[in-house]
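Bumping my old thread because nobody answered last time. Still need a sequence for this structure:
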């Protein structure tokens, strides 16, 4: 599903960037080769970041 219309970024692309370590929307856009434009997708990106466990918050990798 396309989440960012300005950069034509899908949820899969965004999830991949987050899984690879992007922790701010700016980092996610950069990892996907885009840049923030209208900002409509920023809330969705922030939600995706917050819902993705990180090694620092889940060092044992437990569910």
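Sorry it took so long. Here it is:
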């Amino acid at each position: 599903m396309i989440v960012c219309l300005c950069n034509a970024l899908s949820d899969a692309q965004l999830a991949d960037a987050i899984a690879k370590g992007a922790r701010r929307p700016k980092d996610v856009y950069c990892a996907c080769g885009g840049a923030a434009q209208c900002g409509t997708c920023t809330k969705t990106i922030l939600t995706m970041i917050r819902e993705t466990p990180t090694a620092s918050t889940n060092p044992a990798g437990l569910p």
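The mean pLDDT is 88. Let me know if any region looks off to you.
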